[in-house]
């Protein structure tokens, strides 16, 4: 706890406190004056164009429209993306906005009174894109905090704060970054989002499963007889309307809105933004074998993803066949975040990964033609690794990178137990990436992982025990116990914000988990039963990754549900892998 409190102050960068919604704001009282001064002169902003057929049919919604809060993302030294979405009825398929276009004004400034270095403008929020608003504000001062807000009619949104990155190459003494993933609605509460907001991070990452596609019949813990938080519909998401409504539900959570209002973020999707365990254009196998229908579903999921995030990518065409989300965010000379997409381009998982996700070693795991990132993204990543001059280079991605053979703990099942959906199912592409990290002499490479619903840290090795090189799996497991290869990087995997913890799922996985981690030499840390997120304190000397955990199916005012610090994993500049767990 003491370490976390120490992270609350930011050396070198003035951090304003998060302003609370005031009566003036909510009624549109005094603040209307500054908004009335707004012209259409959006200084350097990229506006979302109105759909021609609907232009002119601007409406003023009756009732609160900013029910989904505000957000900012993908900061640059002079720019940040501001986001909101109008949804007076967020649990309706159309968000309650119907088919009309609506005018939204925006405002950003360095001070809470919106007077210093102020910029403003207005945009049309259209039904084509779910009445979402994306503003690419330019001309901002590097390494600086800002306030922003939106207005529609007489209603003013809550105020968010955001910040720019330092100029490329500029020194930065300290950066506090949250790492989150997997926030299934039905299986827990969002106190970990709130807890992260309270740490006053500079920036945070959402590594996928920000929503799940399930209706009320979906995904709960074995201990749950009914959802912790019910969903008012039973259908899984298939249409863009359903995905929008799903985001409407998830984003209606005050804890998530609090976090979004506290700091900018960068997001990537994992499978549940579309469908469990999907691979490129193939459904995860839980009911949609028709690839044509699945491509339609994927396009709907992709469109709604763009609509509902402050992400710096071009506005996609409606129902996009593909959407490039891999990109880079750099914080001066201190840190580079390479945001990767391990879903859209991957080859199919090598084995039947339903319903258990895990299976025995199969030849497909070492298919030389397999790909996790696709050729173009892999080439881009190699280039970025070659060019990175940052003190810390992060590969922010979805699934567990390090080898985990679930048979190591108990020796059972005798033919191995692997998660085909993770990089274990993509052995050859993984070798290509580890060799790229080594060849390019990347300084302090760190792989950041979501997906697995466990709090974990690994030494990433130059090679792991490959069952092909042993006469039997028993021999491979025996070699694992004393495996001693150099670390080339570290892997930090976050627990889930609220999704069921992986090793609480029952069966062999639950039994095998703890002894497997204990007997896997490159596993540096594991807390397998709790929900969690990771709070990184990044300095030129070290990256201290603090694991904040709780049981999110309990409320935050209970002993089980109150977030606490478990351990801090320390990575040291110039020392590959995990140096210490304290
Ligand atoms: Fe997940």
Poorly predicted regions? 1-57
List of distinct ligands in this structure? fe (ii) ion
Here the CATH topology of the largest domain equals Purple Acid Phosphatase, chain A, domain 2
Q: What is the highest CATH level, the class of the largest domain?
A: Alpha Beta
Average the pLDDT over all residues and give the rounded result. Answer: 88
- The percent of residues in helical segments reads 10-25%
Number of domains: 2
Which structural category do the helix and sheet elements fall into?
A: alpha+beta
Overall 3D geometry? globular
Give the biggest beta sheet.
7 strands, mixed
Number of strands: 25
How is this structure best described in words?
19% of the residues lie in helices and 24% in strands. With 582 residues, it is α+β, with helices and mostly antiparallel strands. It has 2 domains: 2-163, Purple acid phosphatase-like, N-terminal (Immunoglobulin-like), CATH 2.60.40; 175-581, Alkaline phosphatase D (PhoD) (Purple Acid Phosphatase, chain A, domain 2). Helix 4 links the parallel strand 10 (175-180) and strand 11 (203-206). The protein is globular, with a radius of gyration of 23 Å. The two termini are 12 Å apart. Bound molecules: fe (ii) ion (FE2).
